[in-house]
# Entry
Amino acid sequence: MPSTQTSIDARAALRAAVNATALRLAPGHGLPDPRHLSLLSEVEAPASPRVWADSSARALSAMFAARARRDALGDGAALVWRYFDGTRLIRPASLSMEARAVLLAGAGEYLCAVGLPQVAVRFGREAQLFADSDATRFYALTVTALGFALNGEYTSADPVMDAASALFRTGGWAEEESSYLLLLADSLVAAARMDHLRLRGVARELERVHPTDPYSQYSARAIDAMGRLIHGEHAAGLAACQQLLHGSERSMSHRFIRDFLLCIRSDIMLAQGQYAESLASLSTAESPEGHGICFAMQRGGALLLLGREREMLAETEACAASDSDHCLRTLTPLLLRRAIAFHRLGDDRRAAQSMESALLLIAHTGNSMTPFIMLPPEECAELVDAAVCTHPELAETAAYIRTALASVGAPVEAPRLADHLHGFTPTERALAELLLTPAGLADIARTRGVSLNTVKSQVRSIYVKLGVGARSAAVVELRRILA
# Structure
């Protein structure tokens, strides 16, 4: 009898969690209870009913949202495809407009969390078609806005964000119900435009309106760290990243935000000239499905600055060959990096193809400066100018890019060392870069994927060409060359 009663109580608690959470996904009824979100994020995914009714749709929408908001993403996008073929339910349905809209928006929120923003946008747009109340329409708009922003479609994100914000202002809802999804979309658009003031504004707003939610607080601090990178506060930004990535707070954070922080930390290291350390910091990082965060692209930036072009191309080959599933926000910088690598290796045809593809994407999705973070500006500008000769319609985009390169490109010194090391092989030039870092020879060997003896032999060759007998003297000479 006690076990039977316990089972009944558990089912009743689950029903209460489902009903309360589904009701509160859209504004007007308060925020979902954190205990309910935790419970729903852990329950087994339900089987598809013979015919979908409002009650079963509410249960599924609550589960999708709970898994997204509590970072329970282990089933990936396959969880959505258990129930949907595209945006259509696989089984027959007898649903009210409202229940269908909330279910579609909940699935879209989950797809944003697992890293498939293009698909999330389709669910968000479909949810808008069925939304028959302002509150549900607002939820659908926030999912759509985040999907567009995650995918780097900033021109499309702007009007959706504006519509959601206007709807919230006129809705009369409590300030605490302002959407985390909308604020996250706002931060991505601000980052693309290198607007550090807006980034810090979003961070403060998140902290203010969701003061008791640790997930929102963690995201706020991560957004602030991005603002510090953009503003050139590298030491403070790096310290913030390290604390967030390794502190106890990370246990209550979203995977996308943690991955985002890894990229911020990597970019700060590149800005400080720590190319090998930046690459090493990403050695075990794996991209989520859809590549909303693309660690192949991120590692490619470090490899490019290290002069390891062939490795960079091999690292990013699969992403470049992927179909429409790859996130556009991360595909654009990947194509830019490949264009420079091909150009350095003398393959001008493929360099031009990659650069033209990147520029067309930028023109289509809306101007963004972030793809140019830590790119060698002179080499990039040369390829951009060549692309405009073939595609004169890209002249306006090219002018924007020159401004971006002046703001966020790699320090001029970064690509110039190789130009001064006449008589050095490409391997020796890359190794000379690493000798200027604090990395030991064993660390350099691991970074380059060769034996310690091989590195020692290459270093001796560098010493001979520089006319020195020790690393300290080699560093002095290399810095003299750069002066």
Remarks:
- Confidence is low (pLDDT under 50) at residues 412-416.
- The first strand starts at residue 84 and ends at 85.
